[in-house]
Amino acid sequence: MMVKENIQNCKVISLAPISRFKPINIGIVIDHSGSMQEDNAQMVDKAGNSLVYYDDNFQLVFPKGYVAPIENAKSAVKKFVSSFNVKKDFISIIGFSETVDQVLPATQDVSKINTMVDSIHATGTTAFYDALIRGIEEVKKADGVKVLVALTDGLDNRSAFKWSQVVELANKAEIPIYIVGLGNVNRDTLSLIAKSTRGQYYYTSSASSLNVVYQEISKQVQAFYELVYNSPNLSAADSTRQIELSFNVDSIYLVTNAATKNFPAEVVTVMAKKEKQKQYPLYGGIALIVLVASGTLLYRYQKRNANPVKA
After folding, report:
1. How many CA atoms lie within 13 A of 132 on its CB side?
2. Distance, CA of 202 to CA of 185 (rounded, Å)
3. N or C, fewer C-beta in 10 Å, the chain?
């Protein structure tokens, strides 16, 4: 493992899995708009003939054995939750249609989570961006690894917020967004939101595949590593750094794309005080990176106690 900061080689101090030991705080955003009741693949036969009809009360009648996308989603979410260690991890649920109308704050009570998920029914339009904003607000309250996992099956047509505001807030709170697009969605926008927040975008045309998608996300979220390295630059005026990682394992050489990261305001304040006092930590600045298995970087700065020496 090698680290470069602003093309300068840095000494690696440690690399350790963190999501195995530190709490993971997951916000699960679930689309329960009216379209989550309808799966076109199950509503026509091979010849393209409709298998659904309206009864005397003008209620849509589905074919025998029909499973609505919302039911597949609820089943996948509950299995997703069960893959985490709720003795240390926390789950919050955000359900939405035309408004964010279902919110369960972070909890380790699986029975409460399942009850909330089971209570969700498909109805209304889609306010996806508003739901993402609410999800970020819920997740950012907690400590540890923070992640938002969101499902939608349609185009946003009700939100007060814009997707760019979602990205801005998520990056400010250092929360990656994993998005699952189902069916008729704006793939470009959803992918952009995920990538811009250092998350990942998944697409499936079939609700029956949601369980597989959620299990893949579970593996990703539980494969975060903490990398601590020695930064050669403690200048408070230079709080933006380019970070590049490289790996050489069993003759396989991998280099991540250089990512531009900004130190948090509190870290810049500490660095400025050190400069003013002409004192520096004995071993330089210790920078900490959270590394996702896919190569995505979440960057933080860790303050360490050290005996200062005169410059």
Report:
1. 34
2. 11
3. C
pLDDT per residue of the chain (311 residues) written in tens, 0 to 9? 889 989 999 999 888 888 888 999 999 999 999 999 999 889 999 999 999 999 999 988 999 999 999 999 999 999 999 999 999 999 999 999 999 999 999 999 999 999 999 999 999 999 999 999 999 999 999 989 999 999 999 999 999 999 999 999 999 999 999 999 999 999 999 999 999 999 999 999 999 999 999 999 999 999 888 888 888 887 877 878 898 888 776 655 666 677 777 766 766 777 777 666 644 443 345 555 555 444 444 444 333 333 333 33
Whole-angstrom distance, CA of residue 93 vs CA of residue 33: 16
Q: What is the pTM of this model?
A: 0.81
Whether residue 183 sits in one domain with residue 38: yes
CB-neighbour burial class of residue 282 (10 A; exposed 0-12, middle 13-18, buried 19+):
exposed
189-196 contacts: CB < 8 A, separation 24 or more? Answer: 189/163, 190/152, 192/163, 192/167, 193/132, 193/163, 193/166, 193/167, 196/167, 196/171
Same domain, 245 and 200: no
- Check whether residue 142 and residue 230 sit in a common domain: no
**CB of 269 within 8 A of CB of 205?**
no
Where residue 44 sits, what CATH number does that domain have? 3.40.50.410
Q: Which residues contact 179 (CB under 8 A, 6 or more apart)?
A: 150, 151, 152, 190, 191, 193, 194, 199, 200, 201, 202
User: What residues make up the domain containing 48?
Assistant: 24-221
Give the integer Cα–Cα distance in Å for 77 and 272: 46
- The single-letter code of the amino acid at 270 is V
Domain boundary among 221, 241, 258: 221
**How is residue 240 annotated by DSSP?**
E
Two structure tokens written together for 213: 């998608």
Say whether both 106 and 207 belong to one domain: yes
